[in-house]
Amino acid sequence: MNLLGIDPGRKGALAILDSDTLQVVTHDMPASTPELHDLIAALPEVRVCILEQIYAGPQMSRTSVGAMFESFGVLKGALTWRSIPVQTVRPNIWKAALNVPADKNAARRRASEFFPDCADQWKLAKFDGRAEAAMLAWYGLSFAKRAAA
């Protein structure tokens, strides 16, 4: 069974977790809508997608907020088109459940604890989105187990 974790930020990523082998493969967030659609179209069958909920802070400009929510909508639309069930989760919820620190470097180290054989995918600081997407997929195991029961 495959689970999909998505860190939806501009520097985010998508991670496919094979729940049988506990191996994860990450993809950086595509830069354009057509590239995103191509990536979503090429995914294997996915049981559930755990998508990190985005939020707008008071310091953000209206333009930034609009672009962020537009991208989030495009992403959700692509997942719906592929009939991939989506569960959104706030960052504080999944990070607390998996004991993931807010610090991006510490988060990469935590992901390496879950996926030691896959840690080379987020060895550089700029790939923290890959690590978070992988952990979101891991978090999705709880949803998949409940759905199977």
Automatic annotation (TrEMBL):
InterPro entries found in the cross-reference section: MOC1-like, RNaseH-like_sf, RNaseH_sf
Name by which UniProt lists this protein: Uncharacterized protein
Organism: Paracoccus broussonetiae
Record lineage: Bacteria, Pseudomonadati, Pseudomonadota, Alphaproteobacteria, Rhodobacterales
